[in-house]
Amino acid sequence: MRNKPLIVAVALVALLSVLAFAAGWMFGGLKRPAPVQASAATSTPVDARAIFIPGGSEIDALRRGVPVNQEGHPPPMARVQNTDIRRVRNYPMQPPTIPHTIDGYQVDKNSNRCMLCHARANAATFQAPPVSVTHYMDRDDQFLATVSPRRYFCSQCHVVQTDAPTLVANGFKDIDTVLAAEPPPGGQ
């Protein structure tokens, strides 16, 4: 009986477990909350399809003006602009936006669907712009035979455009607009 302290410890743990289970089973069911009756006002969703723009300095991005005790309709999903028109870039080295839908494109460590059309070898066939030579450079500016692993996941930088409403005002001006608005140096 060299293991007598171990057997006693296991027996005590088992006994405490049984007691805790029995206590939870006996006393856990005493305080059951009454079921909440849904009123007609809360069962009908409130129309919150329009973007709510609060007055003053309030921000209500999550509820869009729907009271907390009511359920609102989700806003409609934004549709991807599928125009295949090359968009103007606002600053040098800006990643171009994707002018078509990419739903269902597989881009993972084994496959990159974007490269079917945009690889330098296939770009002319598919009338797609080839990826920049910078995508074939590693971090030491050495050219590789294939796309660099750090440039492999296209949607890290390139995004599709949707018809979603603008939620935040944007006063961005590109450099050409800024330079055109400046008065010439030296006065008039």
Would you kindly provide a written description of the structure presented here, covering whatever features stand out?
The protein has 188 residues and is an all-alpha fold. The protein folds into two domains: 47-76, no CATH class; 79-188, Flavocytochrome C3, Chain A, domain 2 (Orthogonal Bundle). The chain contains five helices and no strands. It has helices at residues 4-27, 40-43, 114-118, 123-126, 175-181. The longest helix is centred in the N-terminal third of the chain and has 24 residues, at 4-27. It is elongated and about 95 Å long. It is found in: Periplasm. This is Periplasmic nitrate reductase, electron transfer subunit. Pfam families: NapB. Keywords: Electron transport, Heme, Iron, Metal-binding, Periplasm, Signal, Transport.
Which tags fit this structure?
single chain; 188 residues; Flavocytochrome C3, Chain A, domain 2; 0% strand; Multihaem_cyt_sf; heme; iron; periplasm
